[in-house]
Fold these 2 entries.
Entry 1:
Amino acid sequence: MTTDPTVPVIHWTDGDLELSARWRSEAGAAPPRRVVLADDRMTADAAYRQASEGVALLWRGDFQNARQLMQAMARRIDRKKHKSPASPLDAFNAHRQAQAQRARTLGMVLIPLDADYSIPLRRAPDVKQACAEVYGEGDAGGASSVVSLRELQGLVGAHEWRKKGIEIAALGARIHPYYGVFSPVRGEYIELVARAPLPSRSLAFDIGTGTGVLAAVLAKRGVERIVATDADARALACARENVARLDLTEQVQVCEADLFPPGRAPLVVCNPPWLPARPSSPIERAVYDPDSRMLRGFLDGLAAHLEPGGEGWLILSDFAEHLGLRSREALQAMIDAAGLKVIGRDDIRPVHPKAADPSDPLYRARAAEVTSLWRLGAK
Ligand SMILES: C[S@@+](CC[C@H](N)C(=O)[O-])C[C@H]1O[C@@H](n2cnc3c(N)ncnc32)[C@H](O)[C@@H]1O
């Protein structure tokens, strides 16, 4: 057991024994305070009831049964009818609230992990590599830990994507996303960057590079040097690995920065998170941008980082506008207040399975969504 007071610990009892272990939650959830032991005898109804009341179930039974139990709990959650919201904004807020509640309830099924990330349960899969990629190499001190099954499944899914990669048509190659790094699964915005007329081929900045995908696209288009920044350690490591895999290390330099690197460039590209809302966990930071902080930071700093005649490419979807989270006028006002003018705009409609699913709670906003590349210049 760890003695580091900053490491969260989960406590439970087994008969007369008071036990504890390191608690792992990449979502930043606190260790559950009420924990009971559970095994194959537990019914889905009982599990659902306990979990809804905030009682965590530390699994001792067969691993595959724990998976099935959680699926049965999910069905119980998803059966619940929700009131029709009055506006798209109400729908968005209700949807996020329901998602958070769902995550809390399903997050109550807990799995023990040994120090080397093996799972000491019957029929358990080997998750060692997936865990090591996210938590770091196993603890030499022999500390065991506890994690929610839901998080563990997220880690395993991320590991598969990282291994397999995502085909990027504009690159004719694959990009391998890391856990917690914005994944370029929706390719339309990449298409916009692949087809916009380049103002120069000498130098570009890619602000908030994530997997490094846009820097790589610019490199493939012949931009001689690209400085790609990010503020997140996982994104930096991920971008570096992708750049190396694509053999672009001569052209693309990945560096840690809060938005811009020093200096000016004739082209500065940025794809900030599209929704001005509070992330509910650290791994949602690439999707939600509270108070449009990154968007504003990019716009406000752009003119000072553009060479004369240079262009800033802002990639942004209008999903937030359809949800009532930000108006077009407010975006125009931000561009204006930053001393920028719009040189041009290229729009694309997302091809998103949910955009064609009327049962999705955000269907109307999704179906109307347009992603744009705004070409901005200093006034
Ligand atoms: C929506 S993702 C876009 C990633 C990538 N450019 C792409 O298009 O797939 C936004 C990225 O910006 C990064 N980011 C957020 N705030 C930042 C800041 N202040 N400085 C640098 N990067 C930041 C996030 O870590 C994330 O990787």
Note: The mean pLDDT is 93.
Entry 2:
Amino acid sequence: MSKKNKHSPSKAKTKTKVEPFWQTKTLAQMTRAEWESLCDGCAKCCLHKFIDDENTTDETELKPTTHIAQGEQMSYSNIACHLLNDKSCQCSKYEQRTELVPDCVQLTQENLDDVFFMPPSCTYRRLKEGRGIPSWHPLLHHGKKSAMHQAGMSVRGKVIKDNDVELEDFEDYIVLWPLHDID
Ligand code: SF4
Ligand code: SF4
């Protein structure tokens, strides 16, 4: 009679843990699809920001700028671009955005140095500063944005559109919440 040993060791199943791309690659090494997927969709970058610049003249006031000089401070407002869908937090004209809104900042791997224009919670900025992606990021929630909205990290329910206000009155709309970050 043959006997089988119930306790004989079975073949060990070894699973290799795959590290997520944002932990193994630099921003510059990512593919286009990986880069795009990092955007959390918070839409904080669609808010109007203002820089208090001592050299501002009547001519340059409220005009777009591409730099911040040393000592200048950027303030966020709760005024959002008129093309933003403030419920989904998505651009309603994504493909034409740079034509329709010339100062729409499109962050790419080529202009990564402009990341300072992004809020502290922006995933690109977080990764550039070595802070990783936050626990509420859609990539950690099967692509869903609900954790981000619940954490209060998106603009949903907090903004007014720029075609509903006079930009000259921007000081009435300066807010601190876009600077908030968690994790
Ligand atoms: S702030 Fe950064 S992560 Fe958030 S929507 Fe804009 S680009 Fe994407
Ligand atoms: S054009 Fe679209 S992506 Fe650009 S600021 Fe406006 S809503 Fe945001």
Note: The chain is about 15% helix and 10% strand.
